[in-house]
Automatic annotation (TrEMBL):
Gene3D superfamilies: q2cbj1_9rhob like domain, Tetratricopeptide repeat domain. GO terms for biological process: collagen metabolic process. Residues 693-735 are annotated as: Disordered. PANTHER family: LEPRECAN 1, PROCOLLAGEN-PROLINE 3-DIOXYGENASE. InterPro entries: Leprecan_dom, Oxoglu/Fe-dep_dioxygenase_dom, P3H, Pro_4_hyd_alph, Pro_4_hyd_alph_FE2OG_OXY, TPR-like_helical_dom_sf. The gene is LEPREL2. It comes from Nothobranchius furzeri (Turquoise killifish). Keywords: Dioxygenase, Endoplasmic reticulum, Glycoprotein, Iron, Membrane, Metal-binding, Oxidoreductase, Repeat, Signal, TPR repeat, Transmembrane, Transmembrane helix, Vitamin C. Belongs to the leprecan family. This is procollagen-proline 3-dioxygenase. It is an enzyme of class 1 (oxidoreductase). GO terms for molecular function: iron ion binding; L-ascorbic acid binding; procollagen-proline 3-dioxygenase activity. Residues 714-726 have a biased composition (Basic residues).
Length: 735
């Protein structure tokens, strides 16, 4: 059934406005219900109660309440969905009159339909959910559940209750959304070593919400192996699942209770209608941003842009290569609804139609109806939102790149277009972004060690927060550490003879402080050399803390002695790098010149350093580039005792040139301002020395840690084994 076109936008606006207003007071009429205790209780209250029990050491109670908070939230979403479906037919008698009525009578029937449906929803939800359970939760609670923090508490709780299978499942579920959480990574390794725990126990309990990502990864896998039939099958399923997830998210925006708009002060002219409009627009904005929510992987901060159109692009190509030409035409026409003037897509459509030849039915294939409906709904919402931007001072940032220009009102179109052009220019140029370093470090401080000289500063290195210091080690010390590396490699440290992960033309050996200490206790290396390896980390930290004038404490995050050796006879015509250009604490995208500070990058790294041990090899120079990963801005040649230090952020993309002859050895170090990310392997090594009555040079206690308070994400909630603290180790990301 079709509504009158001139009434369509008004109908949408009224529907969301009245539904939103009723949802504000959804609990008011139910406050006297006699069966409140049998209804769903607020899941935020259950969560807070579980956390209190956790900190009180009441492990069984904590497990019960935390599990109940998770299941209550899941049940609440299901109740909302069921009520939405059950109330879909409400008001249909009034709705049927909309096509035949005009003027004020049309408005009355529209109001009657909307009100009947909203009342049905309120009554239905009230049958299953307590009045307080229907109220919106705080943004803090939303954050806790979005980051899966209940599972962080649960994995400790089950560990304490000796239910290690459940602990392993909770730990894995939390880690999927927090892949850079070093302590949880270590806990999972501990669970794997525990008796009675198998790989099947590491289940993601939230997997139902991420089905579209499972399908996406499977489609990419089949596409990479040119299995086009299976790729098309998975891409099709991924598109359908993405639409389902988006619909579910949009439905929850519509049915859930809404917060009142923020009061803009005593000077505001907002009346009840303005506030109601703001509430309605907020609901529409929530529905629009479901695109972003569905397109964001667990553990990622940024959404994948153009998520649905990208899937359609992959799908039509896979269908064409699999021989499904009719399906390819339909999918491509669906894609063209997003980008109707895309030249490559129009050329592909012509190719597909020529391939079909005289098959008239296939030529007439129309876009998928679910895509037509998706775009139609989205555009109607955008029109209302931009009306609010133009007339009601509403703030809305469009999450879609495909929004057509004619949806934007003419009065703000020029500003909208200028903002898009400005953003494009900034991304294309990237120069302004490269000049900013928000690390909090300021190069140019004192060099507090006799014999150490400043060789290159920011100006000489053509960048920000970069330094080269010489004389940090003596020739004898370089020789000792090189000997340590050679002995460790000969006895085997897990790296011997392995090809480099970055190039097939080199092999590498690596050694950590803890491994060196253990080898020394076994009598395989000199104890003095192991202690020197540890002490060098403290020495470098002192130098960089002073030179970069760090306002807060600095902690060693990871230390790794690594040697790269050129593979003899495998260097001719070599064009690759020993280590490709990258940034240490964010994910560099050279094409857009953006750097995303999110997992799987080591986002906690603040300072990076390379302490060189030798120069009797060819190649191996460290170099800096702009964000395009191509324009070299500076280069540093290794030599014994030379220290290269720099801030770990996006102002310092860097790489290592190929080692084409000999063996290049260096000590790679990373530092953090956050104590929680300190190198626990060093502390374990220090504990081994202390157990033998040996003193350890350590300066962390003398420094202040500006982030000592427990974080909101409860990073320290990790099980400790009875025989000492657990190790937290980083990946071997050598410089």
């Amino acid at each position: 059934m079709a509504l009158h076109a001139q009434h369509l936008t008004a109908y949408v606006a009224r529907y969301y406005l009245i539904l939103a207003l009723i949802n504000i007071t959804v609990g008011a009429s139910l406050s006297g219900s006699s069966n409140v205790l049998s209804l769903l209780q607020p899941y935020d209250f259950l969560y807070y109660s579980g956390v209190r029990a956790y900190y009180g050491g009441e492990w069984a109670k904590a497990a019960e309440l935390l599990e109940k908070s998770i299941t209550t939230k899941e049940t609440l979403l299901k109740v909302r969905r069921q009520c939405y479906d059950d109330c879909a037919a409400s008001g249909t008698a009034a709705l049927s009159k909309l096509d035949s009525e005009e003027g004020n009578t049309w408005d009355q029937w529209a109001l009657d339909w909307i009100q009947q449906r909203a009342e049905c929803l309120r009554f239905c939800i009230g049958q299953s959910v307590s009045p307080t359970g229907q109220l919106p939760v705080s943004t803090d609670i939303e954050y806790e559940f979005d980051t899966r923090n209940p599972y962080n508490f649960l994995q400790v709780t089950y560990y304490k209750l000796e239910k290690v299978k459940k602990a392993a499942s909770a730990a894995h579920t939390y880690f999927v959304a927090n892949p850079s959480h070093l302590e949880m990574r270590n806990n999972i390794e501990k669970y794997r070593r525990m008796e009675g725990v198998s790989e099947e126990d590491f289940q993601d309990r939230e997997i139902e919400k991420e089905k579209h990502w499972v399908l996406y990864d499977a489609a990419v896998h089949h596409e990479a192996s040119s299995d086009w039939l299976r790729a098309a099958e998975k891409w099709k399923a991924c598109v359908n699942q993405t639409l389902l997830q988006t619909d579910e998210c949009r439905l929850q925006c519509e049915v859930a209770a809404q917060r009142l708009p923020v009061d803009r002060g005593v000077d505001s002219v907002d009346g009840v209608f303005e506030k109601a409009a703001a509430l309605s627009l907020s609901l529409l904005s929530c529905r629009q941003f479901c695109v972003t929510e569905v397109a964001t992987r667990p553990g990622r901060i940024s959404a994948q842009e153009d998520f649905l159109p990208t899937q359609l692009e992959h799908l039509h190509i896979a269908q064409f290569k699999a021989g499904d030409f009719t399906g390819a035409v339909q999918t491509l026409r669906s894609f063209l609804l997003f980008y109707p003037s895309d030249k490559d897509s129009l050329d592909n459509l012509q190719l597909y139609l020529e391939t079909l030849g005289g098959d008239k039915d296939s030529h007439d294939t129309q876009p998928a109806q679910e895509i037509v409906r998706y775009i139609s709904e989205s555009l109607e919402e955008k029109k209302l939102l931009y009306f609010g931007v133009e007339n009601l001072d509403f703030s809305f940032t469009d999450p879609d790149l495909w929004t057509p220009e004619d949806v934007v009102p003419e009065s703000i179109r020029d500003a909208w277009r200028a903002e898009k052009e400005k953003l494009s220019e900034k991304i294309e140029d990237g120069n302004q972004l490269e000049e900013v370093d928000d690390s909090g470090f300021f190069a140019g401080g004192a060099v507090p060690q006799v014999g150490v000289t400043l060789t290159m500063d920011d100006e000489a290195l053509n960048g920000t927060n970069r330094v080269v210091l010489d004389g940090v080690m003596t020739e004898a010390e370089c020789g000792s550490i090189l000997q340590l590396a050679s002995v460790a490699a000969s006895v085997g440290d897990g790296y011997r003879g392995r090809r480099s992960p970055h190039t097939p033309h080199e092999t590498f050996e690596g050694l950590t402080v803890l491994r060196a200490v253990k080898l020394s206790q076994e009598g395989l290396v000199n104890q003095s050399d192991a202690r020197l390896l540890h002490e060098l980390g403290e020495r470098v930290k002192t130098l960089l803390h002073s030179y970069f004038r760090s306002p807060s404490g600095l902690f060693i995050s990871f230390t790794h002695l690594v040697c790269r050796s050129a593979v003899t006879g495998d260097q001719e015509g070599r064009l690759d790098l020993s280590h490709p250009v990258h940034v240490d604490n964010c994910l560099l995208e050279p094409e857009t010149k953006q750097c995303w500070r999110e997992p799987p990058a080591f986002t906690h790294r603040d300072l990076s350093a390379i302490l060189y041990l030798n120069d009797n090899f060819d190649g191996g120079e460290a170099f800096f580039t702009k964000r395009d990963a191509k324009t070299v801005t500076a280069q540093v040649k290794p030599s014994c005792g030379r220290l290269l230090g720099f801030s770990s952020g996006p102002v310092n993309p860097h790489g290592v040139r190929a080692v084409t002859r000999g063996r290049r050895c260096a000590l790679a170090l990373w530092f953090t301002k956050e104590k929680i990310y300190r190198d626990m392997e060093r502390e374990e090594a220090e504990a081994l020395w202390a157990a033998n009555g040996q003193e350890v040079l350590k300066k962390d206690e003398e420094e202040t840690d500006g982030s000592a308070a427990a974080s909101r994400n409860a990073r320290s909630h990790a099980p400790k084994e009875k025989r000492g603290r657990g190790r937290v180790t980083e990946g071997k990301d050598e410089l």
